[in-house]
């Protein structure tokens, strides 16, 4: 797992689901440096998930472009892998097969797949479940399998679309900590979309706030906290408040914008 | 201590499986005994009435006596092999046609809309009603029967495959694309394993329909197969042989259904 992160540049990006339909977001500009954990915060419907899908190459933008290391993103690639809200594991496969499926798509030899799978499963702390049926695992364990399935490709960028929102508080906290530390140890970029302020504070190096309709980047806050983050620490609490205030201000712009439009 | 507990758990699990098996066999035997009793009673009724006495060979006594000579002269084996060959080919054609058609129905909205009405119409046509056309269109009677079996079996396979496709989680395709899958990876690694349960369920239904169709389909034009043997026995007033062939059809059908069930169980990933 020697790959390093990437330079992400989102330039003048706009999107609309239908040619004459409402604009999801408009002229979004964003830069993320190699190895950075970037959180995109916003209310439901502001277009943050759509933005992430475009960054992953799963959707085409209406205008603008996403460049990774100065190469435009046109299609999905194992170099930038997305993790979704639900794990979406393949239920007819065991943990080992689920994790190795991307390598199988890339025509890796079976012995090499097994080697890489074992290593990745260890990284997400699932050694005891390597031959389990994924339907027998808890929600948190399933999300760990999905994480391993993404990490096994040795991506340079991992895109997370509210991946912990369906989990209980304890599992969520454990995964937030683990995903950040894994990303940091591998040096890869993380882009996490969330509407959970705490998640952004505990995981990100920088948070951008997206609001309005069509969505725009309204604010940006650097999360300068130590690596060991505890939600009860005063520094974490202070930053949380700061982020919350920025979020409220951005949301009021959204509401004003809507009122004016009305 | 833990070894003792593990052994206890294993024994109690084995005990539960054994009890389930015994219960199932017990009920099956009771059910079969009732059926045998009804058969025996039917035979007795035929024998006790002078106007139906000539049909009394239908009863279990004469039929069970006939088994040995029907086995010895190869009637049962030859008839079963001939019907099995036609059934196998007919089913193979139905699967080779039905699965791709079902996948198309499940994946393409346009194809589904286009095909739904004509397919529902064709599905409702009794397969045997195609017999005159099949006899004209096909060079041999054998091929005509295989065609009829395919016509009977293709719809359950196609509709079950399409139903399986409709149940797939669209996110699986997104995940696969995200991990670099090409379309053939999606078919081989996602679609086929995901729908194998539904396809096998369709094949099980198809086997049932085809097995019902093959007997009347073999009544005409050929000199082999279970249907032919039944017809031949009837024309020669060999009611004991006719009863044995009915038994053979039932047993073979039961076995094929059991094989399908075992395959469904083996390849099913559904829980609950």
How does this model look, in words?
The complex is a heterodimer of chains A (262) and B (272). By secondary structure, chain A is an alpha/beta fold. Chain A contains seven helices and ten strands. Chain A has helices spanning 48-55, 95-105, 110-123, 139-151, 169-186, 197-203, 234-261, and strands at residues 8-16, 23-32, 37-42, 63-68, 71-72, 80-83, 157-161, 189-194, 206-211, 216-222. In chain A, strand 1 and strand 2 (23-32) form a beta hairpin. Chain B has helices spanning 2-48, 60-72, 75-107, 109-123, 131-137, 141-166, 170-178, 183-217, 226-235, 239-267. With 272 residues, chain B is mostly helical. Chain B is 82% helix and 0% strand. The mean pLDDT of chain B is 91. Classes of the chains: A alpha/beta (262), B mainly alpha (272). Chain A binds chain B through residues 56, 58, 76-78, 81-82, 84, 86, 88, 90-93, 101-102, 104-106, 135, 149, 153, and chain B through 169, 171-172, 174-182, 185, 189-190, 193-194, 196, 269, 271.
Ordered list of secondary-structure elements with their pairings:
The complex is a heterodimer of chains A (262) and B (272).
Chain A: E1 8-16, E2 23-32, E3 37-42, H1 48-55, E4 63-68, E5 71-72, E6 80-83, H2 95-105, H3 110-123, H4 139-151, E7 157-161, H5 169-186, E8 189-194, H6 197-203, E9 206-211, E10 216-222, H7 234-261
Parallel strand pairs in A: 3-8, 3-9, 6-7, 7-8
Antiparallel strand pairs in A: 1-2, 1-4, 4-5, 9-10
Helix pairs in contact in A: 2-3, 2-4, 3-4, 6-7
Chain B: H1 2-48, H2 60-72, H3 75-107, H4 109-123, H5 131-137, H6 141-166, H7 170-178, H8 183-217, H9 226-235, H10 239-267
Helix pairs in contact in B: 2-10, 3-4, 3-6, 3-8, 3-9, 5-6, 6-8, 8-9, 8-10, 9-10
